[in-house]
Amino acid sequence: QEKSCHLSAALLGEDSEISQDQLYELLKYAALGKCHHAAQPSWCRIYHQSHLAGVVVVVLHEMSQLHFYRFYLQFKHLRKVFRHRFTLAPSANFPVSLYGEGTNLKPQNTPQGLTSSSSECIAKSSDLQCHPIIQRYGEKKQGLTSYTLTLEEQKKNDYPIEGSPGCKGYISTECDQQRTDSSPLFGLDCEMCLTAKGNEVTRVSLVDARGQCLLNELVKPESTVVNYRTRFSGITKKMLLPVKTRLSDIQTRLKKMLPHDAVLVGHSLNSDLQALEMIHPSVIDTSLLFARSEGRRFKLKFLAKAVLGKEIQCEQKLGHDPTEDARAALELAQFFIEQGPTKVAELNLEMLLTAEKLAEVSQNKAVLQPQGCGFQEQLNEPPPLSKPCFLDCLQVTGQKPLLLGRQGLDSSGLCQSNLSTSNKQILQKALEDVPLSKFSIIQFSLGPEYLASHLHAGLHEKVRSKLTDMLTIYAGPFEENFCMKSVKKEFGRCGPIQSLTVVTETFQPYVCIQYEVLEAAQLAVESLNGAEVAGSCIKVQRPVTAAMLDCDVLIQELELDVENEGVIYVAGLKKSLTETDLQEEFSQLKDLETLFLPKDLQSGKHRNCCFLKFQKTQSAVDALEAINGWTMKGCELRSRNALAPGHLWRWIWQMNHSNGKQGKHIFYEKTEQLSDSDQDLRKKVKKLDHHIKKLYRSLQNNTLCIVLFPGVNSTHGSQSGLGLMGIKDDKGRSAC
């Protein structure tokens, strides 16, 4: 009997954010398995991987978690089929994050056991004419001014430009463009953390042309930190606690330190200048200087090793050293200027990278000897360079992945690419070609008219506003001198309260309560409407706004969401109870699988509620009946079915805390008719959901299907992505 594949992922809870590396880890194992030395992902488990019929990744271009919850009712198929969901950290270069760094590998021309000896024949002068570096800069050595980015190149690569709409409030270094070939070079690098505002600077380093460190300063972000990104930045909460330096201080110091004709050097320097909110006219970007075909870029770590013979960003260190990175970028630019384009092209960097990746695949400890670089040491074994591309590995095994979409995700020639003009054409092609491929990437898009950054900002505000309204209830009327403490205590039994204020615009006092979780607000409406609180018989209701007219429908659909099956919410717990205490208290409940105790993501303190996940739906129903009215350590418990999975709980918390002061709620709002664009967008989303449904139904059983809302990471802000995944079973649903 054929074994069925299973997918297991412990994603209940606020820690269900998956990094791009973790997603890559999953895709690599699903595509290759143990027979090609791929490891089981660390955050989920695929059972019987060898029996997978295929892997299908559906990418919803430039869509984020915002879209899923803004159009939750329209995504009927997605929310009913996929049992596993996770928040996806946004990436500035999603295609590379998705399947690793591509190469120009052509299987029919490249032997599996490629070593340095077989790469020596590549650097012929006839081939150099076609090299991206020669095509861009010519063969002759030139001064540094020839390698600074033009204004058009800066615009194309998202550099902050004077007068640009996205650069309002940015500070200019006030350096002019009167640079010469003898202008001084300065290396610059920043480390960033993720805050409620987006990417903010936490450390800045500046080195001069001799590599001397002029500035190495920690910076305290203006907004609440959501993720310190310690693994990459090396920054921790403890490090920033005593820091007083702000971004404005750094801006002032940089302006004073840089001479009028300074040329800044960095690797993807646009990100650093955007985070610094500074404009500088003269820049050399080493990620563009060492040009590759199709717009791909080498990583700084690889270039430092291959060109300079230096190890940077070592795994033994906690995070990157910005001074080390700034110095490496500076030395790379100096090497390029001193040696000239021809010498750099003769290094065969592309082939070195390809050889290293293939060496990893075949476990062949090849010796890589760079060409034309006399000062470079011979490497005794392949260094851990850029992240290997598992599409290369699929090529070695004789498979060729399928890529369908409007955007050119693949720049490597490793996929069977087919670019179409509409989602309908993409779907038709997918229905024909996906069954013939073991690994497919299908990309759908809402269209360019819906991808502008200002539309994302508007969408964010609509979702934030609606979530805030759903988390908010009004209770009253109360007597003039009612006891606020009694009200807070009674409503606090439903769950953690974000804010509680008295409404004085009414004849008798009302109370506005905003909760931290949806279940708490719903529990308050269900259990306290018509109850006597603080000596008054009160009415409990949500705000009446146009956006809230479908609130009951939305609550019902959230409750029926496949991810909430067998999950219940319990409130009224003492905050002093630990997870171990609760495991002991709830041990008598049948089929209890997981207990999740939410905590404040800022303080780390536990809330007065928890979520219980049961192996069987009926066991959850029985537990609900048993827990309601149950007394634990002197506290009466209240419970109901879960509404929001862990990743949404985390997202709600971030939205609540990114908004600063809470805005006043309008109790009655004039109903506004949906604009034509809103109505059209809803239709498009519904159609998109239908396309995915049709594609999913056509898949073979035991196919791993992953739907990705990649998220947005731009100068206008960062929006988390969302992933939905499952292995299709014979009932057409995703198997657990």
Automatic annotation (TrEMBL):
This is REXO5 exonuclease. Keywords: Exonuclease, Hydrolase, Nuclease, RNA-binding. The keyword Nuclease applies. Pfam families: RNase_T (PF00929), RRM_1 (PF00076). PROSITE patterns: RRM. One of its GO terms (molecular function) is RNA binding. It comes from the Eukaryota.
